[in-house]
Design goal:
heterodimer, A: mainly alpha, 62% helix, globular, B: alpha/beta, 7-stranded mixed beta sheet
Chain lengths: 291, 294
């Protein structure tokens, strides 16, 4: 697999520090942080739905300055360890940077990215709750889903021209985007996403899962398989605005874990309209804050 | 090991007739190890009278451990006279602040800005050393080990365990027992409860078996509900913590600034009476008191 140069890696890692978060969460954090008695639960639910805020928060919390006995993978854990007010002020410091522009030079649709990340996160969590037999934390699977495509946001923000060409190449030649990215940029979004979490002492299985979320051939963990299936399922017409696509066959080992193929798994999961509604409610851009 | 209280008041200095017996200065504790190394816990206004006594033993090497950067724990730092005298060596230890991305070097830099103080940090005459203390990473001063532990407060707060030649103490700085942010019917309740139970146990383990625990007991249990989330403990929560950690002596400190000496003694006695404490001695921290761990 193509790797990323040390120089580009540093550039991208530094850039994430300055990256603005999504409009809805920025707006809510600005509102919540004006209220001295703001609801902690709501604060958590806003941060954990924003891939940019979650990424930034967990990177700082997992930095060597706090050397926690274990890696922190949730906003709730962060609050217990470092305190509610500190997390609130960290979120505010992310919010005041501004909002991630809806339109970017790459022509990449940020709202669709967010919808996809939120739906994949929920599905990965639900799949883990239902099928995991080895104690894998559904919260960690949720996090893997939320952050798995983070590399795309990084490309859209910091390598917009190259990413635009990759999107075009993918569409023109009908090849998956990650293959097009390797062709044009030299590295795909899964490597960039994994690199961002690796450098900051996130759990190894999380970075491995992000790194290999397009790979079928490696030895699979519960988290990998939950993310892999969630990523595919999110393209199912019931979760994707009714757009009918042919669902691919799952690799046999993954199909065996979930007792069937994608169409069968989605039946087992039952009604998922809540998952879509929740993601929509959050991904929807508020008019007032639109840049 | 000698311990002396130079400031026991929380939040704001509270001089006056009502606080004469227990003192009005904000947090500052002097610790002298058996090797006469000087450790100062927090730089509230109590550090100013402490500084006067140090002028007799120049040059001074002092290790100041800041629990957190709220005013009542840093207010006295610019008045710590040894910083202005060449030849002194001062070490300031404190937590990493995730918002500014800075360690304890930022504290005095901000306090001593032109608008707030006549001397800038850059004009300090002594040698200042700043060191970011990290949880669980032991700091060695001669034969003494200091272990920081993250506690619960509206800003990052480190409690410090100090151990020297078989004697030990722990100072919490400011600490509120962990509480669940979810209601008992909520989805996240059980998960959060498990997290806080684990973390509460980690705090007990960090304090386990010390000779002396000095803990933030700002409130009574009756006052606490309206102060929840402010980052302070109660007399009762400190007693429970001391018992769980099998501490020998508990000192209650960070006295509420509006509490008179008479009231302080009254609410303290009421709290102590609520608990069975055969193996635990409980005392009120009083400015000027000193004692030895033998």
């Amino acid at each position: 697999m193509p790797e990323i140069s040390a120089e580009l890696s540093k550039k991208i890692s530094d850039a994430v520090e300055k990256m603005p978060a999504f409009p809805k969460s920025v707006q809510r954090i600005l509102e919540l942080s004006r209220d001295i008695n703001c609801s902690p639960k709501e604060l958590v639910s806003v941060i954990e739905k924003d891939p940019v805020m979650t990424m930034k928060l967990l990177r700082i919390i997992n930095s060597s300055y706090y050397s926690f006995p274990k890696q922190i993978t949730s906003v709730n854990q962060s609050i217990v360890f470092i305190g509610l007010n500190t997390i609130k002020n960290m979120a505010l410091s992310f919010a005041v940077i501004g909002v991630l522009p809806q339109k970017n030079a790459a022509g990449y649709d940020m709202q669709r990215y967010l919808m996809h990340s939120l739906i994949t996160a929920s599905l990965a969590r639900i799949l883990c709750q239902k099928f995991n037999k080895d104690g894998t934390d559904p919260g960690d699977c949720n996090l893997a889903g939320l952050l798995h495509d983070f590399g795309k946001v990084v490309f859209a923000q910091f390598l917009p021209e190259e990413f635009r060409l990759a999107l075009k190449y993918s569409a023109d030649n009908n090849v998956p985007l990650h293959i097009a990215e390797r062709q044009i940029i030299g590295v795909d979004h899964s490597v960039v996403g994994a690199m961002l979490v690796e450098g900051w002492k996130f759990p190894k299985n999380l970075s491995d899962t992000i790194r290999h979320h397009h790979d079928e051939s490696i030895v699979n963990s519960t988290m990998h398989d939950c993310l892999y299936v969630a990523d595919q399922l999110s393209k199912h017409k019931s979760l994707n605005n009714g757009i009918d696509r042919v669902m691919p066959e799952l690799p046999p080992a993954i199909a065996a874990r979930f007792g069937g193929n994608l169409e069968e798994i989605i039946v087992k999961l039952g009604d998922l309209s809540n998952v879509v509604a929740e993601a929509q409610a959050f991904a929807q851009t508020s008019k007032e804050i639109h840049p | 090991m000698k311990i002396k209280f130079w400031g026991v008041r929380g939040s704001i200095p509270s001089p006056g007739p009502n606080t004469q017996r227990y003192g009005g200065n904000t947090t500052c504790i002097e610790v002298r190890t058996d090797d006469n190394d000087l450790i100062i816990l927090d730089g509230g206004t109590g550090i100013f009278p402490l500084a006067q006594t140090l002028l007799k033993e120049l040059p001074v090497t002092a290790h100041i451990f800041n629990t957190h950067s709220h005013w009542d724990h840093i207010q006295g730092l610019p008045f710590f006279i040894p910083i202005f005298i060449p030849g002194n060596n001062l070490h300031l230890y404190g937590a990493f602040d995730p918002i500014s991305g800075a360690g304890p070097e930022r504290i005095m830099n901000i306090q001593m800005q032109y608008s707030y103080f006549p001397v800038r940090e850059a004009e300090i005459q002594s040698r200042m050393h700043y060191l970011t203390a990290m949880p669980h990473e032991v700091i060695k001063i001669g034969a003494t080990s200091i272990t920081p532990t993250l506690l619960s407060h509206p800003v990052v707060n480190l409690g410090y365990r100090i151990e020297c030649r078989g004697k030990s103490m722990f100072f919490t700085g400011d600490h509120e027992p962990y509480y669940n942010i979810y209601e008992s019917g909520d989805d996240g309740y059980a998960e959060y409860q498990a997290l806080i139970e684990e973390q509460s146990q980690a705090v007990v383990d960090a304090i386990k078996g010390v000779d002396i625990l000095i803990a933030d007991s700002s409130y009574t249990i009756a006052e606490y509900p309206s102060k929840k989330g402010w980052g302070h403990g109660t007399f009762d929560s400190c007693i429970e913590l001391a018992k769980a950690a099998a501490v020998k002596i508990l000192y209650c400190t960070h006295h509420e600034p509006t509490r008179s000496d008479d009231d302080l003694e009254k609410v303290f006695a009421e709290a102590v009476a609520r608990h069975q404490c055969q193996d635990l001695e409980i005392r009120l921290a009083r400015e000027g008191d000193e004692f030895y761990i033998k």
